[in-house]
Amino acid sequence: MANAWKRDKNQKLLSPKTLISLLVLSIIFLSSLFFFFSSSSLQYSNPNLSIHTSFSIPPFDCFKCPQSKPIIANVVENLQYPFIYSLADLGNLPEKPHKNIVRLLKGKPFRKPDISATIQEVLEKMRSNGKNGLVVDVGANIGMASFAAAAMGFKVVAFEPVFENLQRICDGIWFNRVADLVTVFEAAASDRNGDITVHKLVGRLDNSAISEVGARLAFKSNKEIAIQVKSIPLDKLIPPSQPVLLIKIDVQGWEYHVLKGAKMLLSRKPAEAPYLIYEEDERLLKASNTSSKEIRDFLNTLGYNKCSQHGTDAHCTKE
What we know:
The protein is α/β, with parallel strands linked by helices. Helices cover about 35% and strands about 20% of the residues. Keywords: Membrane, Transmembrane, Transmembrane helix.
């Protein structure tokens, strides 16, 4: 027992510069949290929300999930409905940290994610037209689309198969106080029930793709780890009576399979059909043996005859 307190000779201590940086980062983060939760302009409730959901599989339990570490989180800049999210990609510490860590050390909020701004813009227009319903986030990553919707008071169902991302989503659920709004499933949405292989990249375990080639294309890596995750079609999880406002899909080339698994949901009449946002990257689609034309043709058979391109994302609606 006397030797239990002896320091390991090979243990590397953090430099004073790194310790000071971490201390400053902690102070700024706590200050950001205080400002975020004390601001009277931030509202996380929707008095008109009356959605009741029951699901065929149990959701991911954040209370039983091991805590992610380290936690580096901050509020997002320049959004009408701001929220906090926790970084999964920290960069190469301490030499080359993620750009948002550098911003945090300078006292700045995290940079606004494009998908967050897009989600809020679309939902704001829908709400102004008196529409209400569920938001479905397929390929939720660390929750930047989910929390953008929840910050407006909308209920969200999110799908994310990567455990490291689920941990960060759980961080965000706590930071944003949206446990009553965000339900997350440790699963990959697809066109069949069962198990499916997902490829996680070495060095970027927070990202994944169904296609091994697609994973390498998306994240510029030559090494990956194959894991088995549950897969489920959206039609098997979301009941026909459940109003759905918007579906966002970002699954690195597996979009066509997700859409096929939501055929009934997408077949709803125009007034009830969800607004659709999905990634349409031809390289990644090809790696999954499909194409943007195949997706557009499929959607057209379901009545989605109005699609527009926004960067690598397609936005589709029914007229």
